[in-house]
C-alpha cells in the first residue's frame, strides 16, 4: 500500500509554533515514528507553503497512490483550487487537522476539502495522521 501525507503552510514549523495547539514534536520526528509503526506501508510525506505546489503534488499522486492524507492547513479554509483538485483525482483523500478547527476561530469552521474527502479527522494532535492512515488499512 502506498500512502502520502501532504502538508500545507506552516506545518514545517511543528515543534516551534504555537506549542499549546500543535505540540512540541517536529513532523519529521513524528513521521519517523509513524514509519516504524507501519513498516508494511510505503509511506511518504510532502510539505509546501505554496498553494500551487500542493495542487501539483495532489495531481501527481492522485491517480496512482492508494491514499492521500491531506492537511492543507490554512488553505483548507480558503482554497477552492485545492478543493477542486481533491474532487478531480481518483485517489481517496482523508482530510486531517491537528487541532479541533471547530474550537478555534470561526473562519476555520469552513473547509473547501471536506465535501470531497473520504473522511475528516481533527483534534487528536499528530495522532490524527495515524488515525487517517489506519482508515486506509481497515478497508
TrEMBL record:
<dbReference type="InterPro" id="IPR018509">
    <property type="entry name" value="DHquinase_II_CS"/>
</dbReference>
<dbReference type="GO" id="GO:0009423">
    <property type="term" value="P:chorismate biosynthetic process"/>
</dbReference>
<comment type="similarity">
    <text>Belongs to the type-II 3-dehydroquinase family.</text>
</comment>
<keyword id="KW-0057">Aromatic amino acid biosynthesis</keyword>
<comment type="pathway">
    <text>Metabolic intermediate biosynthesis; chorismate biosynthesis; chorismate from D-erythrose 4-phosphate and phosphoenolpyruvate: step 3/7.</text>
</comment>
<protein>
    <recommendedName>
        <fullName>3-dehydroquinate dehydratase</fullName>
        <ecNumber>4.2.1.10</ecNumber>
    </recommendedName>
</protein>
<dbReference type="Pfam" id="PF01220">
    <property type="entry name" value="DHquinase_II"/>
</dbReference>
<feature type="binding site">
    <location>
        <position position="108"/>
    </location>
    <ligand>
        <name>substrate</name>
    </ligand>
</feature>
<feature type="binding site">
    <location>
        <position position="77"/>
    </location>
    <ligand>
        <name>substrate</name>
    </ligand>
</feature>
<feature type="active site" description="Proton acceptor">
    <location>
        <position position="22"/>
    </location>
</feature>
<dbReference type="GO" id="GO:0008652">
    <property type="term" value="P:amino acid biosynthetic process"/>
</dbReference>
<feature type="binding site">
    <location>
        <position position="71"/>
    </location>
    <ligand>
        <name>substrate</name>
    </ligand>
</feature>
<keyword id="KW-0028">Amino-acid biosynthesis</keyword>
<feature type="binding site">
    <location>
        <position position="84"/>
    </location>
    <ligand>
        <name>substrate</name>
    </ligand>
</feature>
<dbReference type="InterPro" id="IPR001874">
    <property type="entry name" value="DHquinase_II"/>
</dbReference>
<comment type="subunit">
    <text>Homododecamer.</text>
</comment>
<dbReference type="InterPro" id="IPR036441">
    <property type="entry name" value="DHquinase_II_sf"/>
</dbReference>
<feature type="site" description="Transition state stabilizer">
    <location>
        <position position="17"/>
    </location>
</feature>
<dbReference type="GO" id="GO:0003855">
    <property type="term" value="F:3-dehydroquinate dehydratase activity"/>
</dbReference>
<feature type="active site" description="Proton donor">
    <location>
        <position position="97"/>
    </location>
</feature>
<dbReference type="GO" id="GO:0009073">
    <property type="term" value="P:aromatic amino acid family biosynthetic process"/>
</dbReference>
<comment type="function">
    <text>Catalyzes a trans-dehydration via an enolate intermediate.</text>
</comment>
<keyword id="KW-0456">Lyase</keyword>
<feature type="binding site">
    <location>
        <begin position="98"/>
        <end position="99"/>
    </location>
    <ligand>
        <name>substrate</name>
    </ligand>
</feature>
<dbReference type="GO" id="GO:0019631">
    <property type="term" value="P:quinate catabolic process"/>
</dbReference>
